[in-house]
Q: What sequence folds into this?
């Protein structure tokens, strides 16, 4: 996973998981389960997502933990 842009309350990421239909739902559910995430907009063609979150409830450290979980999923993902 790569952080493409970051601003408190908004982060845009790219990941091969977001471009593969077989893995998209699992990745989206994992992100949506994080307390403080308000909205996830996925661009499957680009393999990216814009995530809106409440910076008062979700710290940068917690976002980096989520990144680590996504990277673990990337290593085990199935081909499209």
A:
């Amino acid at each position: 996973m790569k952080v493409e842009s970051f601003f408190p309350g908004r982060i845009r990421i790219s990941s091969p998981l977001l471009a593969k239909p077989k893995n998209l739902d699992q990745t989206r559910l994992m992100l949506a389960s994080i307390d403080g995430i308000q909205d996830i907009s996925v661009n499957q063609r680009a393999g990216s997502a814009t995530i809106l979150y409440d910076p008062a409830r979700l710290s940068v450290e917690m976002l980096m933990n989520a990144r680590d979980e996504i990277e673990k999923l990337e290593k085990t993902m199935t081909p499209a």
